[in-house]
Amino acid sequence: DATESEDKDVAEDADKADEEKEDLKTIGEKPEEDTEGVFSVKLKNLTGKVITGVTVKNEKDEEYPDNFLKEDKFEADEERVLWFDPNAKDKADEENKDSSDDAKETTDTEETKTEDAKTDEKAEGEDKDDAEKEIPKYNIQLTFEDGTTAEIHTFPFGDTEEAELHLEGEVAYLVFDSISQKKEYNTLETEKALAP
Predict the structure, then answer these.
(1) CA dihedral over 44, 48, 53, 55, signed as positive or negative
(2) How big is the chain by its Cα radius of gyration, in Å?
(3) Which residues pair with 25 in a beta bridge?
(4) In angstroms, rounded to a whole number, what is the distance separating the alpha carbons of residues 144 and 153?
(5) What would the pLDDT profile of 30-88 be if each residue is shown by its tens digit?
(6) Distance between CA 44 and CA 46 in Å, rounded?
(7) In sequence order, what are the residues at sequence separation of 6 or more whose Cβ sits closer than 8 angstroms to the Cβ of residue 28?
(8) Are 160 and 166 in contact (CB under 8 A)?
(9) pLDDT digits (tens, 9 = 90+) for 11-29
(10) What distance in Å separates the CA atoms of residue 181 and residue 40, rounded to the nearest whole number?
(11) What is the pTM of this model?
């Protein structure tokens, strides 16, 4: 009979793990419904410091948006779920963009038009747009309780379900399991190379 009760304990532990993920505090707004393209990543704060600010931007943008953390503090060793909707800003930009695109196309020389026609055959519709868009890269800025900030470059949104935030000196870096590469990454060397 001993084995039976052990099995039950294991099942209960699994339930508990699920519940924990649900109960984790969030960073950023969790969408009301499942919105396509919204990223969520479980972050563990292993920087040894209290984080008072977390914000995400597209590498191309000049400035970071408002703090995702609001009045809350992301304590050392705490786990939270970061929600990030990369399209939130774009939705507002869409309307402005359309008018400028039209102007651009009319100034194209005939030569590029014929080339475009060729590529159209290969990828009609959506694929063509995707090919032209680079995969956006997102940086995360962390602000610590002591007022210092650190930046994490090219956060692996979509390629990891959970990541650990670490800090070495002034350099923040990630340790995460890459879904596409099926191995663990540590970005310390990359971040050191990018550090000012």
Answers:
(1) negative
(2) 22
(3) 80
(4) 17
(5) 888 877 889 999 999 999 999 999 999 999 999 999 999 988 999 999 999 999 998 87
(6) 6
(7) 54, 56, 68, 82, 83, 84, 85
(8) no
(9) 555 555 555 556 899 999 8
(10) 19
(11) 0.69
